[in-house]
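Internal QA ticket QA-208
Title: Verify multi-chain structure generation after dependency bump
Assignee: T.L.

Test input:
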Amino acid sequence: MNFEIDASLSGFFNPRGVALIGATQNPTKLGYGLARNLVQCNFPGEVHFVNPKGGMLLGKPLYVSVLEVPEPVDLAVILVPAQGVPQILRDCGRRGISAAIINSGGFRETGATGSALEEECLSLARKYKIRLLGPNCIGFMDTHLPLDTTFLPPPGPPAGEVAFLSHSGAICGTVIDWARGHGFGISRMISLGNQVDVNETDLLAPVAGDPHTRVITLYMEGVSNGRRFIEQAGRVTRHKPVIALKVGRFTSGQRAVASHTGALAGRESAFNAAFHRAGVIRAETSEEMFDWARALAWCPLPKGRQVVVLTNAGGPGVTAADSLEINGMQLASLNEQTLAALRDVLPPAASLHNPVDMLASATPEQYAACLRPILGDPGVQGVLVILAPPPMFSAGAVARALIPIIHNAHKPVVVALMGERLIQEAVEHFRAGHVPEYRFPERAASALGILAERAEYLERPLEQPEVPSNVHPQVVRQLLDQYIANNTTLTTSGFLPTETLCQLLEAYGIATLPVKLAKTANEAVELAQQLGYPVALKVASPDIPHKSDIGGVLLNLEDDTAVRQGFAHITDISRRMRPDAEILGAHVQHMLPAGQEVIIGAVQDQQFGTVMMFGSGGVDVEGLKDVGFALAPMTGEEAEHLLDCTWAGKKLKGYRSLPPADRQATKDALQRLAQLAADFPELEEIEINPLRILPQGQGAFAVDMRAKLNL
Amino acid sequence: MNFEIDASLSGFFNPRGVALIGATQNPTKLGYGLARNLVQCNFPGEVHFVNPKGGMLLGKPLYVSVLEVPEPVDLAVILVPAQGVPQILRDCGRRGISAAIINSGGFRETGATGSALEEECLSLARKYKIRLLGPNCIGFMDTHLPLDTTFLPPPGPPAGEVAFLSHSGAICGTVIDWARGHGFGISRMISLGNQVDVNETDLLAPVAGDPHTRVITLYMEGVSNGRRFIEQAGRVTRHKPVIALKVGRFTSGQRAVASHTGALAGRESAFNAAFHRAGVIRAETSEEMFDWARALAWCPLPKGRQVVVLTNAGGPGVTAADSLEINGMQLASLNEQTLAALRDVLPPAASLHNPVDMLASATPEQYAACLRPILGDPGVQGVLVILAPPPMFSAGAVARALIPIIHNAHKPVVVALMGERLIQEAVEHFRAGHVPEYRFPERAASALGILAERAEYLERPLEQPEVPSNVHPQVVRQLLDQYIANNTTLTTSGFLPTETLCQLLEAYGIATLPVKLAKTANEAVELAQQLGYPVALKVASPDIPHKSDIGGVLLNLEDDTAVRQGFAHITDISRRMRPDAEILGAHVQHMLPAGQEVIIGAVQDQQFGTVMMFGSGGVDVEGLKDVGFALAPMTGEEAEHLLDCTWAGKKLKGYRSLPPADRQATKDALQRLAQLAADFPELEEIEINPLRILPQGQGAFAVDMRAKLNL
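Actual output:
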């Protein structure tokens, strides 16, 4: 595996001995529950209890201090009142313990005093080289080692292949209960608590390195360091799938925004772009996360998206077909040989064409005799089996007939077991056989979709974004420094003057139209003659980012008179509409031939760095929301993907009377703007709207643009 | 209730006696299972068995013919081979039986012979005044009467408040099993089979009239008569909620289309528009349908969308808040009194602000002491309670504490019980107490959303669309007749000439720009002078619906020279691009001042009549898909709703530099076009694109339009 596992964390994952500090004889206390779990979990190493009162607990002595505990001890589990924790850490440090889980609450989550206590714990941990999990967490569980450092009431989760990392402690008990109820097993479960030291990103590699773990699930409320998360998760997902449920979608604060990109690029867009880059699958609900986890843990990946629905009930077959289409799958066509095999075993009223409806009379033997040739058909890449309890047979008998065939196939098979109580026997068989089963065809279809997505991700080439040719960061550096140095025109708004911005873009190889500043109407006429008619006039003001909003833009001016009158008009109206704005005059620009127009923009996200936006431009950007997001800098494949996910991008291939536009030039401009924004994070927002894209081979030009400098 | 119940159907719902024709002693046959169910279901009337072989079955005589069965018998249940059914119907007819359920298969679903047999059954039923359910169906169940005419293996569904009508027989057994597993009860379950006589629409009123039924659920694969369905469902939903799961979304054929409206208005848009008009709630999955059914059956409706999340687990609380927002609900602010009450009972680390997080330590008493004041807060209209199994108490104890408070409230409370096995006791309590409980906060939030939607629907005034003033159907009739009579310019394409179409629109009060046909360049110049510069020129051809696609449109022509050259240009290019098209010359039109532009269109749907489309126009209609649909004719409220569901409609209120446009005129044009298309269904497709909408008070004008006549 191409990721390193931080050796300093081995105390959590492979301790020779564990000491519980805060073990207690009082069975109503969490310290008793934790002691019980430690003893009952069959941990193969030593378990020791510490309580200053001394005595015995569950047949073991209670040592008065961790210093008394016999060797070896690598992991301390601490469950004492918060103010006592620093002293315990000192003792642990002296004792040479390398890892500690602080289950206790009473830290940052309670206010300033708690925060200070937490900081103290962290500096002690640093001093003594102890890695900390928590505080304020449920703890850590490994069902294979096994080890259970939680105080959750038994039974613990069944051992299995799904790892679960969680920012929420409260959900851990629920997930254990789900695992039991939904028939999947947990490999490792880690409650992260306040993450004073170890965070979700630190744990990705160690958990992925665990041979028992086949899928990693994450319950996230945020991320500690976005860039590091992308980097670590990106390595891990090449080996094992990671599914994240990110909550808190609507609770993030709004940033102050000065561009369409800024308005649309919320935290969620940044998370989605980050997950896409890192190959992390985003689930919308907990249900979805574990539905997918089972399929990813148990099924071979499909070679494509052609699937068959095999059913004994017509209605659910139609539902499955609908859902498969929603999930981007296609209904496979069966070849003649397969059809003949089906015809041999099914009654004449059965429907042989996908969905294959065997009718309610289908026997276990018919299920088997149909599934076998379907899986053998080279045009079929996966199967969704629907089993509504047949009136004449038990669903369990069908399960028994199908499981060996599914095990022999190298294609994924998922099962929709329709019902609740009549199908319980079949449920148990499929779970024991590691065949993912769902109560509804919609969920089975969505699991197949995720398997296909995962297969496609692993096919994606591992490109690194390359710096585009002919970019000149030193020119940009100089321009920005110069601008900041003699910021005579610098206003509080922080908008860069258009001329400077054009120079910045040109330094990164983005074509702009020469834009010249005219301070007077006469100058405007001169410039227009020089640039060539027709021209556009735009009011020049560092304080007016959306010029057309106030009537500050005139297009297609054909002659000197029009330019002269136009200059007067737009400077007048701008002064009237924005009396506080500094009006420098007007920009004159030659008008380009017709083309398609899009918006491209960048904003700096605190967590994930530069986030790029692409989509339908104009003034309707925020209304139409035909935009997509990606992280900068970007590879050609990422630029391609970003174009493909919007109508604006699709349309570049040509649409009705629109000729194909220069898609290559668009991607190039996108990659160049991404590089510029990534290289200069002080460009807080930068946006080209519109980027005019001429017909194929003729290039793309930044027609209007704005950028805000974070000073 | 303002709907009539068809008296001819009473034989199904209130039979004094039932005869099963096809009862058999062979326990592996369906005829045995059906006999068993009839005997075991505790039907209070007479049950008789018929089998020509005679003998006894389950303690009852097997009569050799239905003619032998003693009085009274109102309902025949027929389960004999298909070819024997007509003779049985004749006997039933002679016997005076008024209702028959044909469970047997072997009819239309098997081909031509079966279809003929089915037709024969229908004509016999008409002759003898027998109403038929089926054939090829599972039958009918009433858990309250009680009566069970199915052959499904026991146990039957628990008695309850949810009626289920289904086009799929195979799903019925599954739904019974779901009902048991998910803790809801069924009132009536009806499998519709081939619907040779009675269909889903016929049954809406009788089922809604059943006092035990509180919610009607429909599993639909289509609709027998769309207009009648809307009318019947619209009456029923004023009294009882109807939830439909319509499957077969992607399997409908494509119509041949000649307009954007035609391309976008698929069967699903028509279904959505129909469901909206009739107040039918559309579920996307079976799970959703029954999740919602439980809430609608058991909860009072909320007075608004302000809800509180009460939780013992932070993470799921955040998930719930996210999901509520997705479902259009808002997090209520608690008043000071409520906050004080919460502060009294919760520990200081608890979060009092919505979501109210009581922490994992929350006791049953704390749950109760928090829920009571929250429900009493006048700013709160519903509550979502989250219960993750608390480590120290049983979830069942929390349920027992909460149920009396929920029963005393007049506000809906739904519960997310997180987990699986640890919560079973709580599940049983809540189900017995008719409190809807879900395994995931997302599902609970969606149920609250549906309750709010239902409450808003009942508030919606019961308007009937009024015919707009100054519409002149007789003028349109005359124009169309005249056009058809001397169809010298009528081509196979069926497109109406623009002049005629303008007259049609004007006859219904839709303002158009005078469009004049110029056959020569000289005529074009004369007309331009007459209409006033600037003008637009558009190629005139009945064969070219999308003129701009081939460069057949020129805008903003300012003088005679431009018009003369333009005429030559567009007629030339049209001849080159569409050599087969008949080119009549060019249309000349005065150019309007700037405004917003939208598309409005109508198509005729076979099932639901005229379907209207509104949205963002231009050439990007099909790419941006910023369109909505509704049925014609439409009320003011419906027009308003249609505008509101698109960006194009929202933007009419003004956006950035766009001044508010004449929204009233837009709605008016929409209602007038709806009336026109509804009055003249031979207008197969009619579309105005764009409709130019001037600033407030200045009207809306049809700038370009096309219509296809179905001859």
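Spot checks passed. Chain B has 24 helices and 30 strands.
Status: verified.
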